[in-house]
Design brief:
Among the domains are: 67 residues, membrane protein fhac (Ubiquitin-like (UB roll)), CATH 3.10.20; 141 residues, Rossmann fold. It has a six-stranded mixed sheet with strand order 7-8-9-10-11-12, covered by helices on one side. The protein is built from eight helices and twelve strands. The chain is elongated and about 170 Å long. The relative contact order is 0.04. It is 48% helix and 17% strand.
Length: 360
């Protein structure tokens, strides 16, 4: 039994020197593989180097003999490549800037303040749009045939006729109410010196109302055989060759005759003196002697002279000092000396002297 076992063991055991053979075969195969790998890398490197050389020198691969490129052509190729490179760099830079702007824009859009501002702007645009629509609607409404002028009314006029005022206004019927310029119409009507103030009112159903305030001729001055009628403010309202109204005449004025034209005013000194005359006449009315005064001489503002034409009397009034006492004396003397003519001197100091008369 022991012999059989030994034999069996001997069968399984490897032959002497067999392991060394296998080991040598393994080492040989490894060297071959390493060598093959190196050769492959070398071939690949050679191929890449060849391709690079072909790319750099631009060999013509379809011919056996590859002529070299001239320096001029090479410079041209290099310039072209440089331009392409610069162009590409610019495009990349441009793209980067565009992307950066987009990123900033996106950040703004996400910013609460930006969102609130944008919403406010949109709201404002909406409001402005609505206002524009409303304005257009109003304009269309106002320009409709409903507002055509069918009637012109004149109020407040006494001296100037309604037809003359309408003619001066240059308002034409069938014109739209809102096409009438108030400023221009008022200016047109005021061309008449009697018109002091004008108010234009637009009414429904195509009616225009012209309301005027007239000046009143309270005095007149005589020059060159004609009469110029003036109001309390010295405006020359009318010049006529006939005496039209029974108004006090102003004598001794300083205004030059060449400046006496309709629409003009008397000089400042005359206007100031007329203001004093108005006060004198008002006091005279209180004492019932206003109707006797036919003319007032304003040449000397320290001595206003009153002419009582119907009573054949002249009154040296002086200034406005003690005007009430002077009018009281004047009233008394006129009543007592009704049939006498001459001059009454009221320009005295009542503390020391009484008024006196010089009768003819």
């Amino acid at each position: 039994m022991q012999k059989k076992v030994a034999k069996a063991k001997n069968k399984k055991a490897p032959l002497k020197g067999a392991s060394n053979v296998r080991k040598k075969e393994s080492i040989f195969n490894y060297d071959e593989e390493v060598k093959n790998t190196k050769n492959k890398k070398k071939a690949k490197h050679s191929k890449n180097k060849t391709a690079k050389k072909i790319e750099d020198t631009e060999y013509f691969l379809d011919t056996r003999e590859t002529p070299k490129i001239s320096k001029k052509q090479l410079d041209k190729i290099k310039k072209k490549k440089k331009k392409e490179s610069i162009k590409k760099a610019k495009e990349i830079k441009k793209q980067e800037i565009k992307e950066e702007k987009q990123r900033i824009k996106n950040r703004k859009r996400l910013n609460p303040k930006y969102i609130a501002k944008k919403q406010k702007t949109l709201k404002l645009v909406e409001i402005m749009f609505l206002i524009l629509i409303v304005i257009i609607a109003i304009l269309l409404f106002l320009l409709s045939p409903i507002f055509k002028i069918t009637k012109i009314e004149v109020k407040g006029n006494e001296k100037i006729s309604s037809d003359e005022i309408i003619s001066l206004s240059k308002i034409v019927k069938d014109t739209n109410l809102f096409k009438i310029s108030k400023k221009e119409t008022i200016s047109n009507i005021k061309e008449n010196a009697y018109i002091q103030d004008v108010n234009i009112n637009r009414k429904i159903f195509g009616t225009i109302e012209i309301e005027v305030k007239e000046r009143i001729a309270n005095f007149y001055i005589e020059f060159g055989g004609a009469y110029a009628y003036i109001d309390n403010n010295g405006y020359i309202l009318e010049i006529n060759t006939e005496k039209l109204v029974d108004k006090p005449k102003i004598v001794g004025y300083k205004t030059l005759e060449e400046n006496i034209n309709v629409g003009n005013k008397l000089v400042a000194e005359d206007i100031e003196n007329i203001s004093t005359v108005i006060n004198i006449l008002n006091v005279a009315s209180n004492y019932g002697v206003r109707e006797y005064i036919s003319s007032v001489n304003i040449e000397n503002n320290n001595n206003y002279i009153l002419y009582l034409e119907n009573e054949h009397k002249t009154v040296n009034l002086g200034d406005m000092t003690n005007i009430d006492i002077k009018m009281l004396y004047m009233q008394s003397i006129i009543e007592k000396e009704k049939d006498k003519s001459g001059t009454l001197n009221l320009d005295v100091d009542f503390r020391n002297k009484y008024p006196y008369a010089s009768w003819l």
